[in-house]
Amino acid sequence: MDIKKTIVTIVAVFTTVAGTTVGAETFRYSTSGDILGLDPYTNNEGPTNTMKSNLYEGLLHRSHDLSLHPALATDWEQNTPTQWRFNLRKGVTFHNGNPFTADDVLASLDRIRQPDSDMTFAVASIDRIDKIDDHTIDIITKNPDPTLLLNLPLFWIMDKEWLEENDAFTLETGATVKTFANLNVNGTGPFMLSEWVPDTRTVLRPNPNWWGTPTHNLTEAVFTPIGNAATRVAALLSGEIDLMYPVPLQDIPRLENTPGITALQGAELRTIFFGFDQHRDELLDMPGSGKNPFKDVRVRKAFYQAINIEAIKRAVMRNASIPAGLMIAPGINGYQADMNDRFAYDPEESKRLLAEAGYPDGFEVTLDCPNDRYVNDEAICIAVVPMLKRVGIDVKLNAQTKSLHFQKIGQTENWNTSFFMLGWTPGSYDAHNPLNQLMSVDGEGQGTWNSGRYSNPRVEELTDLVAKETDTAKRNEMIREAFQIHKDEVGHIPLHQQALAWGIGKRVKEVKQRPFNDVDLRYVIMN
Question: Domain 269-499 belongs to what architecture?
Answer without folding.
Answer: Roll (3.10)
